[in-house]
Amino acid sequence: MSIRPTPEQVLSLAPDKAAAAAALPLAVPAAWSAAGCDDGAVWGHFVATSAEPYQVAIDLSDDVGGPAYRCNCPSRKTPCKHALGLLLFHAVGSVAPARRLPFAAQWLRGRSAQSAVDDSDDSSVSSAVATQDGDLTADAGDTPLGGGSRSPRADFGTPDPARQKRQLERTARMKAGLHELDNWLTDRVRAGLAAPELADPAIWDRLAARLVDAQCAGLANRVRRVAVKVGRQGPWHEHVLEEMALLHAIAVGAQRTSALPIDLADGVHAATGLTFAKDDVLQGVPSSGHWIVAGQSRTREDRITVQRTWFTVGPQPSIGMGGVPGEARPPTDTGSKWAMVLSFGAFGRELADEYEVGTTIEADLHWYPGGIRLRALVGRVEGPPAPCTAGPSPTTIARACADAGWAASAEPWLERFPMCILAVPAPRGNGRWSLTDGTGALAIDGGCRRIAELVAVSGGRPVVVMGEWSVDGLLPLTLFADGQVVGL
Q: Residue 227 phi/psi, 5° resolution?
């Protein structure tokens, strides 16, 4: 039976002060999913740091060569910050007993089997291996806490109380802000959407400012966007009620992320406004291939200009043994077909177009965590961009709507989703237009100001349209027709 370590003992195992400092904020429920422990081990999924969750397990038993770590993160430190964070989480008694997760059970069985093999080996061979490797472990990545050249350093300093205090204060602020948001929503629904105060912009502004103070900037921006819909023409009551329901879902989910599936918890974190360090994102496994720059849009949020650049999978020629190009193949990763790269500019400062619409780049895209893999960072880029006037491969309207439905089911608070369809613009009456094909029709967003150009380029024939879908319809961004790329 193992003995639970104290926080001070855990921090004394850190390879350096940076690892110990990075581990402190990870010893919170929001950082872990499916965490559990028993007499011999502790395990869990670390969330909100990569496109895929990190699988962390720690062998605490004394009968298999001493406690050891297992984490599939790319860090070369032993133990890594995730293992230290989980062990700290366990040290304060916050990990409940549970059945071992499959990855942890398999790893621990392998260690037990290897220990049995090691015990049956000749002592001289074991001594030689121990001298060469510094310890006896089942895997090269497993690191015992005792013995060999990797023994822990007991003289490591105490944790930084100032940093720990800041982390606790931020958590308290966020919880208070989320609780206040949920109470505010409850009061608004109880009073009814017809209440006069709902149309007062100052009420919404005060709520948004309170969320900013609580470091929930993502929710603050969403509150401002909901406020704009109040009193608009059409069924604005339905739209506002839907948005308020989503705000309620995010507020409640953000306080219970440890009980959510990993991907959903990541999406809640992002919707709340928690930021992810670029270095952590770039450590994830990328999707490599040729990507078409399909469209670009800009919106204003408070005093910030947000630019979305949409990438989609492009043709990637494969070269056979004879040097003859083969059939087009998809990227090496089987992940998302679409990727969104965000750029931000302060008020009054023009954003640079780093990627030109209608070109193709060969690059690695690294994904932000979330319920769906959509936002990404561009990593390694091979060579200059090449023109791609043919554009991306379009789908039918029915298929595009099915994809959008899948995305909305994975992240119900999703506000826009990319589409590329082959369709014909058709009038709906009252100055409104839609895009149609043999499988259905999509209303064009009333915010589109270049309908005439869209109709003229189409000439009554199907045209490839790339755009952003939202509850207001499809906002066309780019047309691909007759070898030309037309930005809208």
A: -60, -35
Amino acid at 449: R
- Runs of H (alpha helix) within 311-468: 397-410, 451-458
**What b/e readout covers 396-409, taking b as 16+ CB neighbours within 10 angstroms?**
ebeebbebbeebbe
Coil, strand or helix at 191: helix
Distance CA 240, CA 222 (A): 11
Q: DSSP labels for 103-115?
A: HHHHHHHHHHHHH
At 347, list the tokens: 């008020």
Angstrom distance (rounded) from CA 31 to CA 258: 7
Cβ atoms of 93 and 42 within 8 Å: the answer is no
Cβ atoms of residues 66 and 72 within 8 Å: no
Cis peptide before 79 (omega within 30 of 0): yes
Give one word for 398, left, alpha or beta, with left for phi > 0 and alpha for psi -120 to 50.
alpha
Q: Tell whether the torsion through CA atoms of 247, 178, 168 and 67 is positive or negative.
A: negative
Q: Model pTM greater than 0.70?
A: no
| Nearest-5° Cα angle at 448, 445 to 450 | 145
Report the alpha-carbon angle 215-221-226, nearest 5: 135
The rounded distance, in Å, linking the Cα atoms of 220 and 374 is 21
Q: What is the residue type of 240?
A: V
Cα distance from N-terminal residue to C-terminal residue, the chain: 67
Radius of gyration (C-alpha) of the chain in whole angstroms: 27
User: Which of 143, 2, 19 shows the shortest CA–CA distance to 82?
Assistant: 19
Give residue-wise pLDDT tens across range 5-37: 888 888 888 888 878 888 888 888 888 888 888
d(CA 221, CA 240): 15
Which amino acid, residue 151? S
**Distance separating alpha carbons of residues 336 and 321, to the nearest angstrom:** 29
Collect all residues with Cβ–Cβ distance below 8 Å to 362 and sequence separation of at least 6.
289, 290, 291, 316, 381, 382, 383
CA neighbours closer than 13 Å in the CB half-sphere of residue 126: 14
- Residues 364 and 378: their CA atoms lie apart, in Å, by 6
Using CA atoms, how far apart are residues 241 and 238, in angstroms rounded to an integer? 5
Q: 277's torsion region: left (phi>0), alpha (psi -120 to 50) or beta?
A: beta
Supply 227's token pair.
Answer: 């406020």
List of the chain residues with pLDDT < 50: 1, 49-50, 63-65, 118-158, 316-335
The most distant pair of C-alpha atoms in the chain lies apart, rounded to whole Å, by 90
Asked whether 376 and 311 are in contact (CB, 8 A), the reply is: yes
* CA dihedral over 185, 191, 197, 200, signed as positive or negative: positive
Is the separation of the CB atoms in 115 and 64 below 8 Å?
yes
